[in-house]
Design a protein that fits this description.
Chain lengths: ~210, ~210
Amino acid sequence: MTERTRLTRLKERAVEDRAALLDFLAGQYVAHLAVVAGDHPVALPVAYALDREGDQLYVHGSVAAGWLREAPGAQVCVTVTSVDGLVLARSGFHHSMNYRSAVVIGAARLVEDEDERARALDLVVDQVVPGRAATLRPPTRKELVATAVLAVPLAEASLKQRTGGVGDEPEDVEAGTWAGVLPLRVVAGEVETDPLTARPVPSDVAARAAELGR
Amino acid sequence: MTERTRLTRLKERAVEDRAALLDFLAGQYVAHLAVVAGDHPVALPVAYALDREGDQLYVHGSVAAGWLREAPGAQVCVTVTSVDGLVLARSGFHHSMNYRSAVVIGAARLVEDEDERARALDLVVDQVVPGRAATLRPPTRKELVATAVLAVPLAEASLKQRTGGVGDEPEDVEAGTWAGVLPLRVVAGEVETDPLTARPVPSDVAARAAELGR
C-alpha cells in the first residue's frame, strides 16, 4: 500500500492483510476499470484475472474498444467490489453497506509477448470457472489479434471492508426505531446448457455452479 | 447520449430506450464513482439515488474522504452494473457475461442548498429501501456538515447490456464442446434485526427483503 491507496478515513475499515486482499481478488470475476479519457474519467465493467505468480491483475478487451486504447502505459484504477449487505440504521446518516472493495492503482502494461498473452487469457477464463481453460481449444490468430490484454501491478493495492451490524447513536437506540442488516449475496441459478450441446454439464462448471449456488 | 457515451463497438448491445436506462438506475443501489485524482483515476463504490424529477443522480459521502474532494466541479463517471450471468462459450474468445451497465459522464455539482441536500439524502435512503426515509428522524446539523452531496446530470448517459445464450463459431459447435450460461442474481438473506431493537421488522424493510429474496 502506498500513499495513493492509503485510506484517508475510517481506517478501521482497511484490511492490512495482504493474503485477505489476494483471496478476495481470487474469488471475484468482475472489476471496474477506470481510465482517463481526455477530459473525463471512464469506469467500465470488465472480466479480470488475478495472477498471483506475477503479483498483478490481467484485464482484457476488444482492440476496437476506444476506452481500452487509452489504457496502455497510462495510470488506471481497477476496483473489485462485493456488496454483502444493506445496513439499515436508525438514522439516514448511519445507513451504510457491508462490502468488500479492492482498489488497485497503477500503470497498465500492454501485454505483447504471445506466451504471456495466452496464459493471461487462460487465467481470465479460469477466474470465472476454475479449470475450464484447459477444456477449450486454443485461441486462433485472428482472435488473438482482436484482443488487447493489459497487466496492472498489485504494488499499489488496498482492501477496504465493512462487516457487522448497525452503528447507531445511543439516543436513536433509546427512541426505539427499528434497525437491522439485510444480508445480500450473489447466487447462481440452474445451469442453462446451450440447446446445441449434446453433452452433460462438465464437472468444472457443475462445481462452480454449486459453489455459487449456495 | 452524446459522443462521449456513444458506444464505439458492439452497437447491438446499446439500449437506446431512455425508460430502460431510468428503470435500471431505479432498481440498483450501488455505483462506482470515478474521479481523476492528480495523475490517476480512482473508482470507488458509493450509494447513489436516481432523481427522476431532476434528471440526475445523487451520490454522497463523508467530507473527510479525500477522493470525494476531487469531484465538485470536475468531470466524473458514475457506473452502475448488474452482472446477470456467466456466458461459458466453446472458446475462450467467446466467453462473456450477461450484464446491464449504465454509464453516466458529467460535471459533478456540489449540492449546497439545504432543502436539496435533505431531499437528496432521503432519496439515497429510499433507493435502498423505498419509503424508509420517512420513518427516520431528520439529520442533525452536525451530520449535515459531515456529509458531501454531489449531483451528476443524466444528460450524458447510456445503458449497455448483454442477454441471452452463447455466440459460438459453427466449427466449435460441431466439435461438440459443452457450452451454456450460468445465470446469477443478488439474493437477500433473512433480515438480521439489531439485538437492541424490540420492534418487529417494518413493512417497508420486509417488502424490500421479499423483493430481493426472490
